[in-house]
Amino acid sequence: MEDVCSFLAAQSRDGLLSQEALGQAVEQSGLSWARIERLALERNLLPARYQRNRNMLTLADQLRLAESRVAVIGCGGLGGYILEELGRLGVGRIVAIDPDVFEEHNLNRQLLATPALLGTPKVDVAKKRLREINPAVEVITHQKAFGRNNGMELLSESTVAVDALDNIEGRLELAEISSALGITMVHGAIAGWYGQVTTQFPGERTVQENYPQNGRGIEKELGNPSFTPAVIASLQAAEVCKVLLGRGTPLRGRTLIVDLLEMEFVETQSRDTPPTA
């Protein structure tokens, strides 16, 4: 291990390690990309791929992200962008959950969908994509529908659960199971020009207030263009980052309503608003 650390130190330039140097360390040591990246960060050496993060994230922050585990439930419109952004951010372990394969109607908005991949499981495409963009990210996939019968197992060991579902029943089950496990849930929903985001900590009920009844959302009625999922997913990724790092002010007890047609952003307050510090 000391040989690996000495090699990393020798290869660093201004505290940065190139992708090539990290790859050489992986090849020479037989260790995983994830282990090599964490060894570097533990020694205050930053992989150069994150250098544009360092004016807003400390080395300790980047290490904390690398040691985090986040579950993304749904790998379609919202989920594809969320997976991409968390992978590029440097979240070390990502659980991708989705039972579906790509279909033609996904092509207008889902980042991971291409004509060549129609009929391919979404989780398989997500895993391949994340490996391509950041080999230090460990991707755990489950090609199954999330629900009460398997939710506890699927979310096990995760710190944050990201809601990229397309139905109300699934969201309510996710909220219930996340709370039971002591996991923070970052909720997002989209329909046409509109979307919403909130972050629910264990024991809170903002999501349940927003969806008092089960049923399917209005996505099919209003449709979804290419840009709405990108906007809402990015807001969700920012919330995940803040929760993992304990930084900033998350949308706790608040729901951000986004109207891209009129370009209006409005907050609603939950009845279950937590006390401010």
UniProtKB/TrEMBL annotation:
Superkingdom of the source species: Bacteria
Pfam families xref list: ThiF
GO molecular function: tRNA threonylcarbamoyladenosine dehydratase; ubiquitin-like modifier activating enzyme activity
Residue ranges of coiled coil: none
GO biological process: cyclic threonylcarbamoyladenosine biosynthetic process
InterPro entries linked to this entry: ThiF/MoeB/HesA, ThiF_NAD_FAD-bd, Ubiquitin-activating_enz
Residue span, THIF-type NAD/FAD binding fold domain: 50-268
Database matches in PANTHER family: TRNA THREONYLCARBAMOYLADENOSINE DEHYDRATASE (PTHR43267)
Name of protein: Thiamine biosynthesis protein ThiF
Biological source species: Geoalkalibacter subterraneus
